[in-house]
Design brief:
Elements (H helix, E strand, L loop, with lengths): L9 E4 L5 H12 L3 E3 L11 H10 L6 E4 L14 H29 L2 E6 L12 H21 L4 E8 L5 H6 L2 H8 L10 H12 L10 E4 L7
Parallel strand pairs: 1-2, 1-3, 3-4, 4-5, 5-6
Helix pairs in contact: 1-7, 2-3, 3-4
Length: 227
């Protein structure tokens, strides 16, 4: 494992209690980053007031932001509830925008920042009953590209990572072993990703080693979307 240069940096990682988010937090700490992983009681992404309060109470400047938290209520275009639409857009898209709006000005002033938004393969390919989730992640991709153009002149580099099927607790809860085996057969590398594999990509994008990758949606999917 290569340790990337991120010394004396502070990162905020949302949704870091498990899965990909937890792996990202661990990986950044291995690089010497001080990682903030606020619980929902401290930062509730469903609440604009909570987001604003958290930002106003920050005592230290944040150099790295990883917008990882997300929700994925299943439902077709005629099944989803208004609450599904509202909550998914709030957590997956609006909260990241508000966090970036709150943190980017100081990054610009210091002329250093790394922002990584965790997107999904379902933002670029389709699957039934993912309409609300897909539109939220497609919006996240668009936001990533736009803010990348705006912030790059200040050495604030914005990118997104779009994982495919990942071996997390939630994936195992939502699929039987037979279903997981069927999924593996659709992936060219014939297996699911491990969370730490996603974290490796994120860690590089967050590091001072990344000097020229800007505005990209990097798919980490074992070749799934190449087919």
């Amino acid at each position: 494992m290569e340790v990337f240069a991120t010394s004396n940096r502070i990162a905020l990682v949302t949704g870091a209690s498990r899965g990909i988010g937890a792996a990202i937090a661990i990986r950044l700490r291995q690089d010497g980053v001080k990682v903030l992983t606020p619980p929902r009681s401290e930062l509730d992404l469903l609440s604009d007031a909570s987001i604003d309060a958290y930002l106003s109470n920050l005592k230290e400047p944040v150099d790295i932001l990883v917008n990882n938290a997300g929700i994925n209520p299943l439902g077709s275009g005629i099944e989803f509830r208004d609450s599904d639409l509202h909550d998914t857009l709030q957590v997956n898209l609006i909260a990241p925008v508000r966090l970036i709006r709150g943190l980017a000005p100081q990054m610009k002033e210091r002329r250093y920042g790394r922002i990584v938004n965790i997107s999904s393969i379902w933002s670029v390919v389709s699957k039934p009953r993912r309409v609300v989730y897909a539109l939220s992640k497609a919006g996240l991709n668009a936001m990533t590209r736009t803010l990348a153009v705006e912030l790059a002149p200040y050495n604030v580099l914005v990118n997104a990572v779009a994982p495919g099927f990942v071996n997390t607790e939630l994936t195992r809860q939502n699929n039987t072993e037979q279903e997981l085996e069927a999924i593996r057969q659709t992936i060219p590398v014939c297996r699911l990703a491990e969370p730490d594999e996603i974290a490796e990509v994120v860690a590089f994008l967050c590091s001072e080693k990344n000097t020229y990758i800007v505005g990209q949606i990097i798919l980490v999917d074992g070749g799934f979307t190449c087919q």
